[in-house]
Specification:
The complex is a heterodimer of chains A (306) and B (376). With 306 residues, chain A is mostly helical. Chain A has a single domain, classed as ABC transporter involved in vitamin B12 uptake, BtuC (Orthogonal Bundle), CATH 1.10.3470. Chain A has eleven helices and two strands, in the order ααααββααααααα. Chain A has a two-stranded antiparallel sheet. In chain A, helix 1 runs antiparallel to helix 8 and helix 2 runs antiparallel to helix 3. The N and C termini of chain A lie far apart (44 Å). Chain B has 376 residues and is of the alpha/beta class. Chain B has two domains: 200 residues, 3-Layer(aba) Sandwich (Rossmann fold); 154 residues, Rossmann fold (3-Layer(aba) Sandwich). In chain B, strands 6, 7, 8, 9, 10, 11, 12 and 13 form an eight-stranded mixed β-sheet that branches. Chain B has a five-stranded parallel β-sheet with strand order 2-1-3-4-5, with helices on both faces. Chain B is globular, with a radius of gyration of 21 Å. The chains are: A mainly alpha (306), B alpha/beta (376).
Chain lengths: 306, 376
Amino acid sequence: MSGILIAEQILNGLQAGVMLFLMAAGLTLIFGVMGLINLAHGSLYMLGAFAAAWVAGATGSFGLALIAALAGAALAGVLIEVLVIRRLYGAAHLDQVLATFALILILSEGTRLVFGSFPLYLDIPPALAGPVTLPGGIRYPLYRLALIGAGLLVAVFLWWLTVRTRIGIRIRAGENDREMIAALGVDISRLYTIVFALGAALAGLAGALVGAIQSVQVGMGEPVLILAFVVIVIGGIGSIRGAFVGALLVGLTDTLGGIFLPELFKLFMAPDVATRAGASLASMAIYILMSLVLIWRPSGLFGARA
Amino acid sequence: MRKLMMSAAALALAATGAMAEVKVGMITTLSGGGAGLGIDVRDGFLLAIEQSGRDDITVVIEDDQQKPDIAVQLSDKMIQSEKVDVMTGIIWSNLAMAVVPGAVAQGKFYLSPNAGPSALAGKGCNPNYFNVAWQNDNLHEAAGAYANSAGYRNSFILAPNYPAGQDALTGYKRFYEGALAGEIYTQIGQTDYAAEIAQIRASGADSVFFFLPGGMGISFLKQYADSGVGLPVVGPGFSFDQGILQAVGAAALGVVNTSQWSKDLDNPANVAFVASFQEKYGRLPSLYASQGFDTANLLISALEKADVSDADAFREALRAADFASTRGAFRFGPNHHPIQTIYAREVIREGDVFTNKVIGVALEDHADAYAPECRM
């Protein structure tokens, strides 16, 4: 196992991590501020990817496709918040789970009705296609480097938004004490709509960015949703910083585990058994990571102390 | 009053019996991520029924949502309340394993238009179970045979870590004679293959074999093309199917894949099928559509010889496989699985549509490896 391969795998882990961060940031904001478990977050990811694929197909422009993904997912977020979610704030978490699960089914089959059952085509923009050679002789796809850059930009933007702007102060206040900021005259229902739309837009952006190197199809959001939940549990629910650290941890564990565990097993097992056992253990690795973090810090790495 | 209604119902039943109506129960995947496959099987099947002009065949269609428990519920409903004579439609092997043994045990005929798990081809074979597609390993075996003839000596092979994925790598290795540069099991439903592609790049392989059905294959091919690794790729036809090629785009161009059917197979049945499918549904047919179409034509050919109520005669009529298959020569082996030629195809661009072209025969008159284990 060469140094180049290890470096390439670390880049892959980072890239998976920052894309996961886009999903997890929205999920953790919505849970932290609004106290809502939003299972339909994966559907917003899917809607972003479909909006991007549709606009890219019609116009040929990846830039317009990204704008469409952001706008489409944010708009869907506003509609969902106003029509459905708003009725659920006082409800028990189980009712929220039930209602947002229903949203998954409705959005998935609705998307299938509009776009059909076959996957859509969304390609990498030509300017970002193909591999580049990095210092040290690593050949790495340029688009994946761009994804890492885009994810870090969004992280900086979210930091600026929550720390340096008025809306950010309100969001943080909303996490701490909902009743109090309502009593201070902040329009809490508008704040909720804004937070939900922001989370939806981030999910849509992730769907469009990742859709270019994956399959744009109905149901593409659910596997990512599960990972995003693992991320926010590790990072501490409600914490954007936690989501960032958690996403990178999960991305790196998932990528490196899949590569190194089978190699490790080969040291003391027959190769074909080792590959199979290693692959099975690798698919559990992030859940083992989550358990270990929870044993060490029950409210997550950056969670508010219970 | 009740007595009157019951006798009316009995009369109605007797009347339908006299007209020898046949009821077909189709359980297939029509929603969710795997819906494209079920829709193609259904459309191919219904096209053949329509072309036969027979109005005594009723087809009851239900959506299994790709879930084994739902498929079992639907199967119970079809057998007990719908009273179907013949069942068909299932796409996925795990669903077939949940439904088929129960259905044939209750005396129903089952014609599989897709799934061909090894368990139903070997020890678990049944006189009332016919597979009109292939045994699961077949296309992978053909890929291994093609790799030999293409001169590949050091393949890197990968598949998802579940039974069909393990069968795929076993099937490839059964025929492939070279060395292995690497063997990886990926997670089922995995969407990012950057880590695997890095390993392929570092492995010194001269070729790549993969089995990644549905969206997994689309993701892998796009990422592989963008990585610039550039080694030749070979795989079973599932990842290069008409339904998903448009989503893969130029990344699939030139890839060799194996299939028992191709749009350009030059036999009268296939030429007519491709033209009429395109005319009726406005899209090119896929491998799955051809399998649905062949399944219905097999059924119709058997109904022309025997009544479905005479199980022994009907079974013999099915076994004869006396119909014009879209894939040319077609016959059943002793375990009721096809003995057929499997072709190597190459992905090409026709205008702005991506499709496949036959470039040669991978395995001639190929029977599956499990037939000797079947006792019936």
